[in-house]
Design goal:
10 helices, SDR_fam, NAD(P)-bd_dom_sf, oxidoreductase, Sc_DH/Rdtase_CS, Rossmann fold
């Protein structure tokens, strides 16, 4: 997949999934601005011939700094990957304002400010571009103890759909990626934690059924989707939520009416109570993996 001549920014690229994204983009020819909150960004940038920007995402100032670094160092911007994130897991009744605001600021506001700055630059260039927004299964289905994270990741998928509409005339494709990989973040998800811990304890790779049925693998397993979405091969792919992990590639459905009932003259509370049982309820939460 040839990315020579393209310039990308990857936020939260010092470790984990973000580092895998930055390294994969560079291997395929892109020039990469590596962002993170500490000096590890400089190590990654040096190893791939990129440019490091050490700053926390969320503010407009950081977003503008990232875009300016790409333009100053490499002359343009073609791809923005909004990957940076933090966790502050608590059940609802124990979650503080700071727990909520910190996660929303980094994930949701950070995605917004970075995507906005990138879109402004890409529209000025007039040659199109790619916004790759990193969501999560928690944003699609909810997850225990992750009010803040689930809300942010659901919002990111919604922004991808909205921006795909708004930026279509500028030839800027916008997609949400829903990755699943063995990282410090997925270690906090009860459904995946035992699988990751067992693999690390034994040194054995994740079982085939985990890679296929659960779509859980390494960070490197996910990076190919980022490279594809950054490439010319993905022209026309926009407004989608795409899952990847292990051996599994999936297209997530967008929210839609599942069933509809009708009552002449409208619905009273009693009428709803009488007929609501005709609906088939949706499931929620990330299912616990079950070995075959």
């Amino acid at each position: 997949m040839e990315l020579s001549g393209k310039v990308a920014i990857v936020t939260g690229a010092g470790r984990g999934l973000g580092r895998a994204y930055a390294e994969a983009l560079a291997r395929n020819g892109a020039q990469v601005v590596v962002n993170d909150v500490d000096g590890v960004a400089e190590e990654v940038a040096a190893s791939i011939g990129g440019r490091a920007v050490i700053a926390p995402v969320g503010s407009t100032e950081t977003a503008d700094l990232l875009v300016a670094a790409a333009v100053e160092e490499f002359g343009r911007l073609d791809v923005m990957v909004t990957n940076a994130g933090v966790l502050r897991d608590r059940v609802l009744w124990k979650m503080s304002d700071d727990d909520f605001d910190t996660v929303i600021d980094v994930h949701l506001r950070g995605t917004f400010t970075c995507a906005r700055a990138a879109a402004v630059r890409m529209r000025e260039q007039g040659t199109g571009g790619r916004l790759v927004l990193v969501s999560s299964p928690a944003g699609q289905r909810g997850n225990f103890g992750q009010t803040n994270y689930s809300a942010a990741k659901a919002g990111i998928a919604a922004m991808a759909r909205t921006w795909a509409l708004e930026l279509a005339r500028s030839d800027i494709a916008v997609n949400a990626v829903v990755p699943v990989a063995a990282t410090e973040m997925t270690r906090t998800i009860p459904a995946f934690a035992p699988l990751i811990e067992e693999s690390e304890r034994t040194g054995a790779p994740l079982p085939q059924w985990v890679r296929r049925d659960e779509g859980l693998g390494t960070v490197e397993d996910v990076a190919g989707l980022i490279v594809y979405l950054a490439s010319d091969a993905a022209k026309g792919v926009t407004g989608q939520a795409i899952g990847i992990g292990g051996d599994r590639l999936a297209l997530w459905a967008h929210p839609a009416e599942k069933q509809a009932l009708f009552a002449d003259g409208g619905w009273s509370a009693d009428a709803i109570a009488e007929r609501f049982g005709e609906f088939e309820p949706e499931s929620y939460g990330i299912p616990q993996p079950v070995a075959p």
